[in-house]
Amino acid sequence: MNSRVSSRGKSKKAISSITISSLLFATAIVLKVLANLIPFLNFPNGGTVSFVLVPLVLIGLFCGPVWGLVLCTAFGGIDIFLGGGMGYHWLSLLLDYFVAYGLVGLTGFFSKLFYQKRSWVPIVAVTIGGLLQFLGSFFSGIIVWTSAFDATGVITPDFSLEAITFSITYNGGYMLPSVALCVVVMAMILKPLYALFDLPVVKALAPEEKVKHFELPSFYSLFPIYVFVNIAFFLVALDKRISMPFMAFLSLFFSALIIVIASILYARKKEEMDTRRQLVTLLTILISSVLVLVSIPLIVNSF
């Protein structure tokens, strides 16, 4: 009898994993196709600024590291045929797509903490997922792509400072804004994301131990994330080798928006804030103001 119940539980869990992972996998494909249709989001030698990290990381968080690893690796293979596949050598395809995306699936090791409804888990997971994907492409850059400019055509790994700088600059050019945007999206969907835990299809995947109460992080607690995103936009716009000056517009817009929101919160709730909150809020306003001032010259020079 117990074995029959156990078998039913495993079957139900497998069906739930297939259902959720299929939906998220399809979402990732749609997001990548849409990103490929926008020219300025695509880099000349491969790499796209997109939101695909969000559904790919969620596959691992909902279904675990095995499902995450398998499906994220599969997505890397599909991405080659979605119009974004570009490689100088079969090794670059392996590292840039199969390995880089496959590593993202390892964020599924956060699954247990995710089901404990810890608000920081999705944000940290998507950040680590982006870093892991960057590592795959980074090693592709210094092992394969630096050889693409060698007249002999021989694949010779180049670990010189120049090659490392090239790989960090190029791959960071699209990964940094992608991770920054995905962090913002994760922060925005936390509440509806955890509301899904009440669905039977999700409950079937949750660990048996009792799930802790989830508290949505306050807008104040997310200030450091917003500042990080704006700094990321500015740094990408600053690097002329990446040639993405439109990021300066994003830095200016979001920095100005944060200044307005933070100033209103500070004016209305100053008395309720402790010293630490006041300091963080004022520091957020200060950094955002600096970003506004330094973004304006970049925007003017881009014309």
Descriptive notes:
With 303 residues, the chain is an all-alpha fold. Helix content is 71%, strand content 0%. It contains 12 helices and no strands. It has helices at 2-36, 53-63, 65-84, 90-104, 111-115, 120-143, 161-188, 190-195, 200-203, 223-238, 246-269, 275-301. Helix 4 runs antiparallel to helix 6 (120-143). 40% of the residues are buried. Mean pLDDT is 80; it is low at 1-5.
What spatial form do the alpha-carbon principal axes imply? flat
Tell me the series of helices and strands, N- to C-terminal.
Answer: HHHHHHHHHHHH
Q: Gyration radius, to the nearest Å?
A: 21 Å
The average pLDDT is 80
State the share of residues found in helices, binned by percent: over 70%
- Helix and strand content put the structural class at mainly alpha
Binned strand content: under 5%
Distance from N terminus to C terminus (CA atoms, Å) equals: 74 Å
How many β-strand stretches? 0
Largest sheet data: none
Number of helices: 12
